[in-house]
Structures are given as structure tokens and as C-alpha cells.
Design goal:
The chain is an alpha+beta fold and 174 residues long. The protein is built from four helices and twelve strands; from the N terminus they run αββββββαββββββαα. The protein has one domain: Beta Complex (Beta-clip-like). The termini are far apart. Bound molecules: zinc ion.
């Protein structure tokens, strides 16, 4: 599913949104039109479509659920993200003070455990993780630098517990 341009143009005119869409060479990007202090909410998703299966435009909100929302779907990834999508409240929060015209980006592994379309990151941030994949495939030392959603933390803990149990079993069997 893809949001056609005329839908995006209509959404641009919704006055209460603090955001606008622009079409750049790499596709649609989302920008703030206002000055927004760090940690302030920017947008809350309301009319979302729920998917059991992931697409490259959905955002994972828990272990089993993927949502399609027109703003989330058009936000780019950054390794130095300007926002955080809180999957509990479906709200985008500013990660730092934002000025009008700043792009709204988020760290994709903060919501996605696996990604349908991994890609090479060109965000240019220092500490860029390089290949953007779901959190399952990102080094722990990199993930530790970011705020992650609870379902990602739960999935990480499940893997860590499994690994610990496996290594204990190995020791017991040796
Ligand atoms: Zn990057």
C-alpha cells in the first residue's frame, strides 16, 4: 500500500499538524513547521491501519503488530534521529530542540525487530550504524546508545536469556 501524492497534499493542509511533507530525490520526507522543544509531542497517530505482516512502510508497535500511518510511513531513518516514535502512545516526540524546517527522522531499529528492506545508511551522523537492519541484527553496543521501544527491549531480553541458558547448558554438559 502506498499513499498517493494527492493524499499527501491534502494532509499538508491540515492546520493542526506541525509537520509538512516534501518530495525530495530520495522520496517523501517529513519536516516540522514549528519550533518544538525537546521531549514535546509532535504528532499522534489516530487513523492507522493494522497489519499482522510487515511492509516497508509499516511501523512495528509490539511483537505481533505493524501499523500503517501516513506520517510514520514517510519519515526517514537517521542514526542521529530528531524524534522518537513511542509505540505505546503512537506519538512522535522531539529528541532535541527542533527548528522550523528540521527533518523529522527516527532510528528504525527503535521500532523494528526485523526489517523487510534493510539498506545502507547515508545519514552522515558520527556513529552511523552503516547498514540499517532490524534491531535483531544490530550490534548490542550500537543499540545501547538509543532509546528503544518496550517490545524491542523485550525481544532483546528474550534473546539474551536464551543465549545465557544455552551457554549454561553447554557448561553443565561439558
Ligand atoms: Zn546512519
Amino acid at each position: 500500500m502506498f499513499y498517493p501524492i494527492n493524499t499527501l497534499n491534502k494532509l499538508k493542509s491540515i492546520g493542526s499538524l506541525k509537520i509538512e511533507f516534501r518530495e525530495l530525490t530520495n522520496g517523501f520526507c517529513v519536516f516540522t513547521t514549528l519550533r518544538i522543544p525537546a521531549h514535546y509531542p509532535i504528532y499522534q497517530a489516530k487513523d492507522t491501519l493494522i497489519f499482522q505482516n510487515q511492509t516497508y512502510q509499516t511501523v512495528q508497535v509490539d511483537e505481533q503488530t505493524h501499523l500503517l500511518d501516513f506520517v510514520f510511513a514517510n519519515m526517514n531513518h537517521s542514526c542521529n534521529p530528531s524524534t522518537f516514535i513511542d509505540c505505546g502512545s503512537l506519538t512522535i516526540f522531539a529528541e532535541r530542540d527542533l527548528e522550523p524546517g528540521d527533518e523529522l527522522t527516527f532510528f528504525y531499529p527503535s521500532t523494528e525487530w526485523r526489517m523487510e528492506r534493510p539498506f545502507k545508511c547515508r545519514c552522515g551522523a558520527s556513529g552511523c550504524i552503516g547498514n540499517v537492519k532490524g534491531a535483531a541484527k544490530v550490534l548490542s553496543s550500537s543499540l545501547n546508545r538509543y532509546r528503544l521501544n518496550r517490545h524491542i527491549e523485550r525481544l532483546r531480553n528474550t534473546i539474551l536469556t536464551r543465549e545465557k541458558t544455552a551457554s549454561c547448558a553447554k557448561i553443565l554438559n561439558s
